[in-house]
Structure formats: C-alpha cells, structure tokens
C-alpha cells in the first residue's frame, strides 16, 4: 500500500527516517488525476532511488485561469490505487492551507523564460511553479526529482532553480507518454469527450508534420506557415502558439542549420481546455 501523508509534520518524520537509514529519495511532483505519463516517472524513480515520494497538489498559485483551477480533475482514490499498484512508497496529498500556512513573500523571476512560450501566455505561472517546487524540495530534500518533457519550459525553470540555488538534487527529464492517437497524456484530457480527444490529436500530428518538413530541409518560416494553416483548417481546435526554438535555451533561432537541436512547441485550446505538447529534434 502506498502510504498517504497529508500534513507536513508526518512528511518530516518519514523523511528523517529515510535519511537516518541513509536511503536515497526520489520525488515525483504532480497535480494528480494520474495517468501513464505520471506513472512512468514513478517507475523511473523506483528504479533509481530507495524511497519514492509522489506529491499530489493542485497548486493554486500556478493557475492563471480560475476556471482551469476549479475544473482541474480530482481522482484521489483512483490515484492512490494506481500508486499502490506501481509500488510507490509514499504519496503526500496536502490541502492548500497545509502548504501555504505561511504565505510566501518571495517572488521568483525567471528572466527571459517569463517572456517566451508558456511564460508569455501564462503570466505568473512560473513564479507559482518555482515556489511550490522549492517548497517541495525543502520538505522532501530529495536525492533526485522527476519531471516530464511535456512541460519542457517547466524543466528549464527547475533547472534554473537547481543551478542558481546550487541545490544538491539530481534532475531527471522523462519522455512524453502518448495515447494511441498520439495525443500527449494529460490530466486535462479527462475534460474532453472522445470526439474532442480525437480532434486534439492534431496537435501531435502537426508537430510531426513540422518535424518531417524541417528534416527535409524546408525553411522554418514555411514550416510554421504550414502548421498554422493545418490548425486553421481543423475544427474545434484553436492554436495559441506554434514555435520552433533552440531545445536548450528555448529561445528563438534564426535559420535552421545542420546539427541544431530544436524544440517544436505548441499550445492549443480544444473545447476551452488548454493543451501543450512538443517534440525535440536534431537536424
Ligand atoms: P502534472 O500533474 O500535469 O503537473 O504533471 C506532473 C509531472 O508529470 C510533470 O513533470 C509533467 O511534465 C509530467 N507529465 C505530465 N504528462 C506527462 C506525459 N504525458 N508523459 C510524461 N510525463 C508527463
């Protein structure tokens, strides 16, 4: 059984016990409504660390849409069962009051990352992510922590935290787990009907289309134009952005040349639900 922890003092007891026993700790932060993507992170952590702690917390400070926060799927009992089946040792499921008993005074500014891609379209989002992740790092003191490539810019933000604060934590990036249709697994997919999920698969198919064109040497501007046209023709899907950026810095690139590592990133709304996805390629 995956042991459920709800309050910070209980979490501290578990952490102290693990540390005294010299056990390494793997942390998997999530917002719940767990799917195979989340569980792949748990599996990796279990293979690398002695103790795995998953956290489930729908962090209000990282939502910039009230509706998105209120409608975020919650499936706690099913999540605990999935974690138990995966052999996860502990799951920390605090309330908002428990987490933010002391209101944070800090604001974290991630520099240029605030002005591109997700940062640009979700003002304040990464401050919320940074604060909760620092809090979880402080509470759990993990040896390693796992994050998915689906939230690529989040990974850059956390890399920045680790580097700037010199945190002794191994950071692991996990590949994107997809539905058979290619749609990246996401808790928010639960808010879509089957037909809407089918429409949403255009996000990945267009990323793949762009990847193939770039690999064939089609100019970046034309690739972008084609991608935008594909979205314009699709029903029920509204593209927010489609960008081709440097995979490391996530910054805009000029012309594409051999050896470049690129991230193709997209965000789109399907029936009011905002979805993101990306592909990393090497030219
Ligand atoms: P979330 O619950 O959406 O905050 O996600 C928790 C963690 O799981 C984040 O590090 C995500 O990047 C990761 N994750 C979400 N969806 C996927 C997926 N389809 N494949 C792999 N990892 C994922």
Characterization of this structure:
The protein has helices spanning 8-20, 36-48, 66-70, 76-86, 96-99, 117-121, 125-140, 152-164, 194-200, 202-215, 220-233, and strands at 3-5, 25-30, 51-56, 90-92, 144-148, 170-174, 237-246, 261-270, 273-282. The chain folds into 2 domains: 3-174, Rossmann fold; 187-277, Pantoate--beta-alanine Ligase, Chain: A,domain 2 (2-Layer Sandwich), CATH 3.30.1300.10. By secondary structure, it is an alpha/beta fold. The chain is globular and about 55 Å long. A 6-stranded parallel sheet has the order 1-4-3-2-5-6, with helices on both faces. 41% of the residues lie in helices and 20% in strands. Helix 8 links the parallel strand 5 (144-148) and strand 6. Adenosine monophosphate (AMP) is lined by residues 30-31, 37-38, 40-41, 147-148, 150-151, 174, 176-177, 184-187.
Describe, in short, the structure shown.
The protein has helices at 8-20, 36-48, 66-70, 76-86, 96-99, 117-121, 125-140, 152-164, 194-200, 202-215, 220-233, and strands at residues 3-5, 25-30, 51-56, 90-92, 144-148, 170-174, 237-246, 261-270, 273-282. It is of the alpha/beta class and 283 residues long. The longest helix is centred in the middle third of the chain and has 16 residues, at 125-140.
């Amino acid at each position: 059984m995956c042991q459920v922890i709800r309050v910070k003092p209980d979490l501290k007891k578990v952490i102290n016990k693990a540390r005294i026993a010299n056990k390494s700790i793997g942390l998997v932060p999530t917002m719940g409504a767990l799917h195979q993507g989340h569980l792949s992170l748990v599996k990796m952590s279990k293979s690398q660390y002695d103790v795995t702690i998953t956290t489930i917390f729908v962090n209000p400070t990282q939502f910039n849409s009230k509706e998105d926060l209120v409608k975020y799927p919650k499936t706690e009992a099913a999540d605990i069962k999935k974690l138990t089946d995966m052999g996860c040792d502990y799951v920390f499921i605090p309330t908002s009051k428990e987490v933010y008993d002391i209101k944070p005074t800090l604001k974290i500014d991630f520099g240029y990352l605030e002005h591109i891609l997700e940062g640009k379209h979700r003002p304040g989002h990464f401050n919320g992510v940074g604060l909760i992740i620092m809090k979880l790092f402080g509470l759990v003191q993990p040896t390693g922590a796992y994050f998915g490539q689906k939230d690529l810019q989040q990974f850059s933000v956390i890399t920045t935290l680790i580097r700037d604060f010199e945190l002794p934590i191994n950071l692991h990036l996990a590949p994107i787990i997809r539905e058979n249709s290619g749609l990246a697994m996401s808790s928010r997919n639960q808010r879509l009907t089957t037909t809407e999920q089918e429409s949403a698969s255009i996000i990945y198919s267009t990323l793949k289309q762009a990847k193939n064109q770039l690999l064939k040497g089609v100019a970046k501007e034309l690739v972008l134009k084609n991608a935008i046209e594909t979205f314009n023709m699709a029903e029920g899907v509204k593209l927010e952005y489609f960008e081709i950026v440097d995979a490391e810095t996530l910054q805009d690139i000029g012309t594409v040349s051999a050896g470049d590592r690129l991230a193709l990133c997209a965000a789109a709304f399907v029936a009011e639900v905002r979805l993101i996805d990306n592909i990393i390629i090497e030219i």
